[in-house]
Design brief:
Blueprint lengths: L25 H17 L3 E2 L6 E2 L7 E5 H6 L15 E5 L6 E5 L2 E3 L10 E5 L2 E2 L13 E8 L3 H4 L6 E7 L7 E9 L3 E11 L4 E12 L4 E2 L4 E2 L3 E12 L4 E14 L12 H10 L8 H8 L20 E2 L5 E2 L10 H17 L3 E2 L6 E16 L9 E20 L9 E4 L6 E15 L5 E14 L5
Parallel strand pairs: 7-10, 14-20
Antiparallel strand pairs: 1-2, 3-9, 4-5, 5-6, 7-8, 9-10, 11-12, 12-13, 13-16, 14-15, 16-17, 17-21, 18-19, 21-22, 22-23, 22-24, 24-25
Amino acid sequence: MRNKKLLRKTLLGAAVSVGATVFLPLQDAAAQQNRTAAQALLEEVVVTARRREETLEDAPLSVVAISGEAMQAQGIYDTRQIGDFAANVNLQVEDRSNISMIHIRGIGGGFANPIQVFGAGMYMDGHYLAGSMANFMSTMDVERVEVLRGPQGTLFGKNVTGGAVNMVSVKPQDTFESSIILRAGDYGQQDVRGMINIPISDNVFGRFSIADEQHDGYWTNRTKGTSVDWNDQQSFRGSLRFTPGQWTIDATYLHTEQQGGQVGMRCNARPNSELVNSLQNTAGGNHVLTQAQLDTLNSFPTFDGSGANAGYGAWGGDFTYPDGTEADVGGHIEQLGAGETVRFLDNCFQDAAAGDFVNSSEGLDDSDTETDNLFLSFVWDSDGEVGPFEALQVRTNFSDRSTEYTWHNDRDKGIVPGDSLGHTGLAAGFAQDSQSFELIFDATLNDRVSFLAGVWAFDDEANTGTGD
């Protein structure tokens, strides 16, 4: 865990684009940036929601499409924020960091176990992002994000009953371009993005981008004096495009790393919610307890096989102290002794009195993900009539994605070590590898008849953290 409280005052966010040869005066640059932002929100958007390029107006689907320029103008720096701009779409993090939850029209879900699937899916350059690990990412060099609402099984396969989120990266272009974007804000926000697009030859182009984005989060752990929901994210994307004759060949490599704390939450007082509500009512939400209340809490039996709780086993995970000692207590604080329940509840009330975003977790709360993505695309275009077709395009796509995820999560968020889970090390952490192959024929017979035909294969192997 770390604390990077570098910027405590709210600063004006700034985005600066640096061209190859042109540097505008400050006022001219600001005016140009405002004009660019306005144009980005009004420009015509091309989508591939039906597996072929067409304007958003022509697509007979319920699609929300946001271009890269529009995302920058609206301050969308993470794909999770798309849910704030699309109706009937909810993108959020589960109670463990870097685990995505997707709901489109009320259908979907998300969970840390990588083998589980849900009714809404995400795609990156045509590759299905299986499971829920590390599916939200930086919008660095993302050309557009398309949110397809409603069943998409015909063109996108299974697990998309509610809909799909389709992300498309920017491909190398035949003109030189470069930019750098800097942002700073309160709670230690520091973002740096850089991009360069280089025409290597007449038919070979390269594009490379890098980002380092940091945020301290809003929650504070008053026991440790550290940030809780901090986040550091690094991304690198490298792309090459080769255009020999009627072919367009693209190769893209994307590497992302994300380190941070867990989602900020207040401690959950257990085991008796009615008792907790009673204490909050009688004490007015204050942490000061009467002697009668203390006697009631101290009367809880321990898990020694006697008393009212006999026969109930511990739930949740075990707690490991910093010295390596393990406590087999699960979520039942009483197992540590009846007095521990008092200390836990008393501390929960102190957290509430300290502020809206304060907890006192003594357990480890962290997460670390690393993802490598490779995309290969081969497109042949007839560029005119061929046989009975007015136009014919053949597309072949190969892709590979590997994800590693290690984490700790103190789920009770209180000062008493009780309910703690986690996996550390590559052998014990979650891991997922998937490969995809796609072959598509896109043909136009005349101005009234066109069709798509293709085949798609997908292989997914996941490790649940136990070797299974």
